Amino acid sequence: MRSPETLSKRECIEVLVEEYRSLNALLLFRLSALDRRLPASVGFMAAAVAATLSLPIESRIAVLILTPSAVLWMVRTTIQHAMAKEDHLRRIAEIEVLINELAGRDLLAFQSQHPNRAAATAGRSGTATVIATAAGAVLLLVLCLVLFSLDTGPFPYGLYLGYVGLIAADVVLGPMRLSRYSYAKRPKFLEASR
Fold first, then answer.
1. Is residue 77 part of a domain?
2. What pTM, to 2 d.p., does this model score?
3. 144 lies in a domain?
4. Local structure of residue 193 (DSSP, 8 states)
5. How far apart are CA 60 and CA 147, in angstroms?
6. Exposure class string for 56-94: b at 16+ Cβ within 10 A, else e
7. How many domains does the chain have?
8. What is the mean pLDDT of each run of 10 residues along the chain (194 residues)?
9. What are the distances in angstroms from CA 132 to CA 48, 101, 167, 174, 189?
10. Residue 163 domain-assigned (yes or no)
């Protein structure tokens, strides 16, 4: 196998184009996953409210104990998709710059020269989806507290309040964690071929 240092510029560009294609396919997956998050969380909230009110007390308590964990999972996975989207966007921009440098002219420019490339982590759609999902999650957690207060049965309300409070804190901090996230640039293997 040849080392990267022995590849021609054309071969390096071909390798980068393949990575570019793969990353664009992964980016489409991330966009699709993010687009499904908000309707899924709203649907979950509506179903949880409707189902909880019609359940016997023991089942209602079980649902109200499990729902905050499910909400936290939804928010955290949404943030993970947004962070992965950020990684894809930044690496695609790097590849565009590398290909342009190797070719000696601007061939690719969309991501690397996009006017909003640094405005929001994970792009505007990623940031908006995380914020909207977190806001919906907080509303659902408040609703859980209200429903739990109606009839707590043997489970102490103060303990449930603490449980939901810890989850709410994690949910609220999620968009802030995303805003501080930054792509960790990998070392360039093509330095010798330039």
1. yes
2. 0.81
3. yes
4. G
5. 9
6. eeeebbebbeebbeebbebbeebbebbbbbbbbbbbbbb
7. 1
8. 72 90 88 78 73 82 89 91 88 89 86 72 85 90 90 82 97 92 69 44
9. 18, 39, 16, 11, 39
10. yes
Residues 45/139, Cβ–Cβ less than 8 Å: yes
Distances in whole angstroms, Cα of residue 8 to Cα of each of 1, 2, 18, 137, 192:
14, 11, 16, 52, 11
Q: Is 108 helix (H, G, I), strand (E, B) or coil?
A: coil
Rounded Cα distance between 139 and 145, Å, is 10
Query: Does 51 map to a domain?
Result: yes
- Report the distance separating Cα 5 and Cα 168, nearest Å: 51
Helix axes 9-54, 57-103, angle to 10 degrees: 170
Domain with 127, as residue range(s), is: 8-181
Phi and psi dihedrals of 161, rounded to 5?
-60, -45
